[in-house]
Amino acid sequence: MNGRAMAAGERPEGRPSRQINVVLRNQTEGYGLNKESISDPEETAASLKNNPQFAMYQDIQKELDQLVGLESIKDFVFEIYAFLQIAQMRSDAGLMSGSHVYHMVFKGNPGTGKTTVARIVAKLFQKMGVLTKGHLIEVERADLVGEYIGHTAQKTRDLVKKSLGGILFIDEAYSLARGGEKDFGKEAIDTLVKAMEDHKNQFILILAGYSDEIDFFMQTNPGLPSRFPIQIEFPDYSIDQLIQISELMAKDRDYILMPQTILKLKQHLLDEKNETSQAFSNARYVRNLIEKSIRHQAVRLLNQYSSGNPGKLELMTLRVEDLKLDKK
């Protein structure tokens, strides 16, 4: 299920729900149309992109193109756009285009792009008229859970109020269920479930965290699974993708990585990923390494050029000695 958007819960006949891309593309089945009369999905997507109305998607596309990897996540974002666009066309044609539930669960290790994608999704929903503001309120357990009875419910309601018209993004959402029945985290969960009913279609709730922990969390309240029809797996980046990300991060800061620096970084990432497995923080880990290397380069240059200024190329270059790695 890596990187695929899934519909949570089960179908009436007891079988698991289909993937959302299948649902959106095959809604015509069972209405007097056979498979031969349905356009190829890729041709349909290409045709839609040539539509003048696709212009509003261009800004979203540019942001997605800047992300390394995440191809299935990018496909999912386009599917949401396509669904909303067709829903508007159906409405204009006098056809039914009922309301849709967009609350989501983002599963994956840290540094896999969950928050970044959430911001892009918020912009898409704002452009398409689903959300009035399209802002993102990012919170964690400490922002929701209070210190006494009733405090948690009020804090949670206040955050929901701030997120109306946008997205409420709860990172490490599973931490709300760690304290057991007597923990105030349960009060936050109950308040969120009620808010999703009281403010239906006024905001979108996205829960994020490790896959296993999120799956456990969803079972803590019987009302949760059915309220999150979209679940997305964010896969870990490959080593080559992490190297690409590191070079882009350096470039964005007007730095370049020497070939020897890249080789050293690549070997370190291989070792680190094998040792930490699920605890590996992907792009976040790479960002910390690059920023640390920049600080080390500054110290090296000050010592090396105590009586003069380094040239522009030297100011930009991160050498292998700048990539100092912690010994374990």
From TrEMBL:
Domain AAA+ ATPase: residue ranges: 100-238
Ranges in coiled-coil conformation: none
Chain ranges passing through the membrane: none
InterPro entries attached to this UniProt entry: AAA+_ATPase, AAA_lid_6, ATPase_AAA_core, CbxX/CfxQ, CbxX/CfxQ_RuBisCO_ESX, P-loop_NTPase
Classification via SUPFAM superfamilies: P-loop containing nucleoside triphosphate hydrolases
Similarity comment: family membership: Belongs to the CbxX/CfxQ family.
Entries under PANTHER family matching the protein: AAA-TYPE ATPASE FAMILY PROTEIN / ANKYRIN REPEAT FAMILY PROTEIN, AAA-TYPE ATPASE FAMILY PROTEIN _ ANKYRIN REPEAT FAMILY PROTEIN
Name of protein: AAA family ATPase
